[in-house]
Specification:
The chain has helices at 12-15, 43-50, 118-121, 126-140, 158-169, 182-190, 204-212, 226-235, 259-263, 280-296, 312-319, and strands at 2-5, 17-20, 31-40, 70-77, 88-91, 101-105, 109-111, 149-152, 173-178, 196-198, 217-222, 241-244, 266-269, 303-308, 327-331. By secondary structure, the protein is of the alpha/beta class. The chain folds into two domains: 2-123 and 301-331, Quinone Oxidoreductase, Chain A, domain 1, CATH 3.90.180.10; 130-272, NAD(P)-binding Rossmann-like Domain (Rossmann fold, 3-Layer(aba) Sandwich). The strands form three sheets. Strands 3, 4, 5, 6, 7, 14 and 15 form a seven-stranded mixed beta sheet that branches. A six-stranded parallel beta sheet has the order 10-9-8-11-12-13, with helices on both faces. The chain has a two-stranded antiparallel sheet with strand order 1-2. β11, α8 (226-235) and β12 form a beta-alpha-beta unit. The structure holds NADP nicotinamide-adenine-dinucleotide phosphate. NADP nicotinamide-adenine-dinucleotide phosphate (NAP) binds at residues 42-44, 126-127, 130, 154, 156-160, 179-180, 183, 223-224, 245-246, 248-249, 270-273, 322-323.
Length: 333
Amino acid sequence: MRTILYLDHGKPEEVLQVAEVDAPASPGPCEVLVRVLLRPVHHGDLLNISGRYRPGAAVPQGGARPGLEGFGIVEQAGECVHLKPGTRVAFFPGAAAWGEKTLVPAEYVTEIPDGVSDEAAAQLHVTPLTTALLLRAVEASAAKAGHDVIVLTAAGGAVARLTISLLLERGYDVIGVVRREAGVNELNMVFPDLPVISTEREGWQQKLIAAAAGQPIGVVLDPVGGETAGAMAQLLGQGGNLIVYGNLSGDPVSVPGLLFPTRDLHICGVTVGRWAALPAEVRKADIRLALELAEQKADLFPVEATYDLADIGKAVAHAEAPGRAGMVLLASR
Ligand SMILES: NC(=O)c1ccc[n+]([C@@H]2O[C@H](COP(=O)([O-])OP(=O)(O)OC[C@H]3O[C@@H](n4cnc5c(N)ncnc54)[C@H](OP(=O)(O)O)[C@@H]3O)[C@@H](O)[C@H]2O)c1
């Protein structure tokens, strides 16, 4: 079968290759063999391939195969699994999902209802589950709906859009921050009443303070890091939380030290990388939420482009391009 493979860390366009490998063996009793049809290219996949999560760590001998989530059909299921061959499923966390077939523990396989498209199913886990983690982090903070403002940076991103939609439903006052002026209109097409500020022009901090209209900024949800996150930390109200879930800028966050004692700031982070270790009932509730979102808010799972595995170089370059209107998917149909 075909798979995507890399032998060394480096620029994804340069190190990724299509390779022929043996298909996985028959599933164990509690495993599912999935024929993968679609999978997303996440920023996190690209960080992994470039070696940024574990600087200096070597790629295992024989190469590494990316991909933690995907959508496909059951080819064969172990004896304690109720899924029949041909059932539409998505999975996370899996392994080597950028290959044509993969074995997944049954507890991480989600059956896909008819009302969910293949494209939304391919994005069912990483993005919505990160949204669930962020929502819990907001709810665990001291910020109160109707009192505090929640600000999201990189607000046009897939995680941010889903999170904004759920925060608004729960009665929070939300402000989006984007890096391009054009991004303001793009986000207002989805959320017409959302205040959106662009950091492209000088003075954006004053615009943000004006948009908050006297309410304290209780939480900033930030996947950008660098100057943006540092500036946002300084705008937080007393006891405010900077919740970090990415580092798109690649730069460290610098915050004036005296802000911690004087304003009692909190900085923490969430990662979907630890989601599988959560209690089973929490995971089940998160999957229910993800399926509801995919069924009822399909427009929040947009696809920018779909490439065959053979075009992996073009796919990852496209996934890294600014101004995308949706996820880049890799197909093997
Ligand atoms: N912690 C976790 O478990 C977890 C899970 C999923 C994702 N993430 C992280 O969350 C981030 C967003 O992922 P996503 O899938 O939601 O994103 P996405 O749909 O790929 O969109 C990325 C967004 O970030 C903006 N952006 C990119 N680089 C930026 C920069 N240097 N400064 C400011 N804005 C920038 C883009 O703006 P333009 O429209 O201007 O291009 C776009 O709106 C990534 O860092 C990803 O690694 C973390």
